[in-house]
Write a structure and sequence with these properties.
Helices cover about 35% and strands about 20% of the residues. By secondary structure, the protein is of the alpha+beta class. It folds into 3 domains: about 5-90, Uridine Diphospho-n-acetylenolpyruvylglucosamine Reductase, domain 2 (2-Layer Sandwich); about 95-215, 2-Layer Sandwich (Uridine Diphospho-n-acetylenolpyruvylglucosamine Reductase, domain 3); about 220-405, FAD-linked oxidase, cap domain/gating helix (Vanillyl-alcohol Oxidase, Chain A, domain 3). A hairpin with a 5-residue loop joins β8 and β9. The radius of gyration is 22 Å and the shape is globular.
Length: about 450
């Protein structure tokens, strides 16, 4: 073993540092399966803030790159290992303390989203952010990418629930930002700076989360359409009148992929399907459901189903959450999460359909339609070089389209390594330069997640 690496192993308890090449293989890539992944020297499976500090002090001394990693479910290559670096995993940092009196939870980053929800629910509380991968993604990763989910149209995204952080900086200094206060404007908003920073500014070791009272029972509406144009028009009509608890979109490719997997009896001929929910109470819920149904009918829905049966409604939510694994059965997937201002959603959907036709590729399109965040899934056969090349061209063209429509190259998955070439086109040179100045101030040696976000 290299003398320098032996120093790191000796500084931490047995089993924290992994150097076996076979064991390291699982730490090389996240779910994006970045083909450019390198081979790290080691993986540090930290169990405490002190372990993270020791690893970063060692890395700073020896100028070794550090790639932070949560559950490895990221979809933009944000946790891609680099040659000669270390992967710092927070998977073993799993403590949580829920305070019913303040409706807050103090959580370590390795706890899964679903586990935070369960811990809150045990006290009659609710943690709303709910990525489709909520059962397997970690809170640390959610904070690092500012993850959203199906409920975010009404309840907001991860940053709306982060009150405080403990962060270890590139030199090993641990700082506490924010805290258990609902209102706090003292100093710069440093807490928000680290949310969504994808491990490029520091490593999150503790999060203080705001919780809500348990969500009221929901009513669910499902509508199918003969054209995507009608479906997106219905989305705009619904969001102009109210804020649903959920408003999701599935296109025909998505519907059929899910039907192949779950055999639910979904309408295979539908060009698009909307899944909407109201969790308002009493008469307000009835009025919202009626308004959403009327908006769908006014824009040509071929069928509208409404139910207040929890099991029936949840079955449709499971179908929506299952789209990505269902589509992955059809081939390798390049997954995007471009978003646009809501009025431009119809243009984005039509433009993605045009790109799919022009490049002769399959693009399954799902969306958190209520806030304009779409997930185009570009499917191809990696053994077909021409098809793979067309898929890569389509990937870039979808992002170019979103930028032209005043949109974003990522709504919730992060820039990572797979989208950074388009970042300057979206934010502009001056804003990118400002971001780089912040990065250099907090990470002067450039050891934190090199290659992520910044071109």
């Amino acid at each position: 073993m290299d003398v320098t690496l032996a120093e790191l192993v000796d500084a931490l308890p047995a089993g924290v540092v992994v150097t076996d090449p076979d064991l390291l293989e699982k730490y090389r890539r996240d779910r994006a399966a970045d083909p450019a992944a390198g081979m790290p020297l080691a993986a540090v499976r930290a169990e405490s803030t002190e372990h993270v500090q020791a690893a970063l002090r060692w890395a700073a001394r020896h100028r070794v790159p550090v790639v932070p990693r949560g559950a490895g479910t990221g979809l933009s290559g944000g946790a891609t290992a680099v040659d000669g670096g270390i992967v710092l995993s927070t998977e073993r940092m799993r403590a949580i303390e829920v305070s019913p009196r303040t409706r807050m939870a103090v959580v370590q980053p390795g706890l899964l989203n679903t586990e935070v929800k369960a811990a809150a629910a045990a006290h009659g509380l609710w943690y709303p952010p709910d990525p489709s991968s909520f059962e397997i993604c970690s809170i640390g990763g959610n904070v690092a990418t500012n993850a959203g989910g199906l409920c975010c149209v009404k309840y907001g995204v991860t940053t709306d629930y982060v009150l405080g952080l403990e962060v270890v900086l590139s030199d090993g200094t641990a700082v506490r930002l924010g805290g258990p206060r609902l209102k706090d404007v003292a100093g710069l908003s440093l807490t928000k700076l680290f949310v969504g920073s994808e491990g490029t500014l520091g490593i999150i070791t503790e999060v203080t989360l705001r919780l809500l009272p348990a969500q009221p029972p929901s009513s669910t509406l499902v509508a199918t359409f003969a054209s995507t144009r009608q479906a997106t028009a219905a989305v705009l009509a619904i969001t102009a009148a109210l804020r649903p608890a959920m408003l999701e979109y599935m296109d025909q490719v998505s519907i059929n992929a899910v039907e192949d997997m779950l055999h639910m009896g979904l309408d295979r001929d539908a060009a698009a399907m909307l899944l909407a929910r109201s969790d308002s109470r009493y008469l307000a819920a009835e009025l919202e459901m009626r308004s959403m149904a009327e908006a769908c009918q006014a824009h040509g829905a071929t069928e509208v189903l409404a139910t207040d049966d929890p099991a029936e409604g949840e079955a449709f939510v499971v179908a929506r959450r299952g789209v990505i694994p269902a589509v992955e059965r059809r081939g390798t997937v390049l997954l995007e999460d471009v978003g646009v201002p809501l009025p431009r959603l119809p243009e984005l959907v039509a433009g993605i359909e045009a790109i799919a036709a022009a490049r002769a590729v399959t693009i399954a399109l799902i969306a958190h339609a209520g806030d304009g965040n779409t997930h185009p899934l570009i499917v191809f056969d990696p053994a077909d070089a021409a098809a793979a090349a067309r898929a890569q061209l389509a990937f870039g063209e979808v992002m170019d389209l979103a930028i032209r429509l005043d949109g974003t190259i990522t709504g919730e998955h992060g820039v990572g390594r797979l989208k950074k070439a388009w970042l300057a086109d979206q934010v502009g040179g001056d804003a990118l330069d400002l971001s780089l100045r912040i990065k250099q101030a907090l990470d002067p040696l450039g050891i934190l997640n090199p290659g992520a976000i910044f071109p």
